[in-house]
Automatic annotation (TrEMBL):
Protein name in the entry: Haloacid dehalogenase
Species of provenance: Glutamicibacter arilaitensis
Coiled coil: none
Signal peptide segment: none
Superkingdom of origin organism: Bacteria
Length: 195
């Protein structure tokens, strides 16, 4: 029996505007794609998502690498768009007595972002790699979730838009779903007996 549904954050609940990075790069005469490529390069991404550096330090390093702090700051100020259908689904789950949580490979500013965007009121728990010290798909972050919720793997449904992030959860018995839209997610939740 599923007692908790855990959602990834970016790419599931919220989405960054397509093409916005291109506009910033064009305005600052930077190579196309360099901001995203730098931000999500290793070891920089792991450092910020495991809490070794702050989001502010991450943005500063991006600016230093690409040669434009202004461009990096503009990139960092992008506001993702919320998927209201996912928020509504979360509310339905909570009304059915299901614990709803977020598990994100995030930065130290995630708690404030969730409040500012109105996401926090739709969820019961937040699990953020920047505070836990491990990132998906490491089994240790999923064990942390199970311990915190006092649940066993098969009692938790986890969805992420990155298939590669599901393996650690699946190895611990989570019911996993590769997110590709709200309709397939609802179908998977129905098949799992949650809806």
């Amino acid at each position: 029996m599923i007692r908790a549904v855990v959602f990834d954050l970016d790419g599931v609940i919220r989405h960054f505007p397509f093409g916005h990075s291109d506009e910033i790069e064009h305005c600052h005469h930077l190579e196309n794609g360099i901001l995203d490529a730098t931000a999500f390069s290793q070891p920089l991404l792991t450092e910020v998502t495991t809490g070794l550096i702050s989001r502010e330090q991450w943005i500063c390093r991006i600016g230093q690498i690409v040669g434009s702090c202004d461009a990096a700051n503009e990139w960092g100020e992008q506001i993702p768009q919320l998927d209201q259908s996912i928020l509504q689904l979360m509310d339905i789950l909570r009304n059915r007595g299901i614990t709803v949580a977020i598990l994100t490979n995030g930065t130290d500013t995630i708690p404030d972002e969730l409040i500012a965007q109105g996401i926090r009121k739709h969820i019961d728990r937040v699990f953020n790699s920047a505070f836990i010290g491990y990132i998906k798909p490491d089994q240790r972050i999923f064990r942390h979730v199970l311990d915190a919720l006092d649940l066993k793997g098969p009692e938790v449904f986890f969805t992420d838009d990155s298939r590669s992030k599901l393996c650690g959860a699946a190895e611990l018995g989570f019911v996993t779903h590769h997110f590709q839209g709200v309709a397939p997610l609802r179908e998977a939740l129905t098949n799992a007996g949650v809806l």
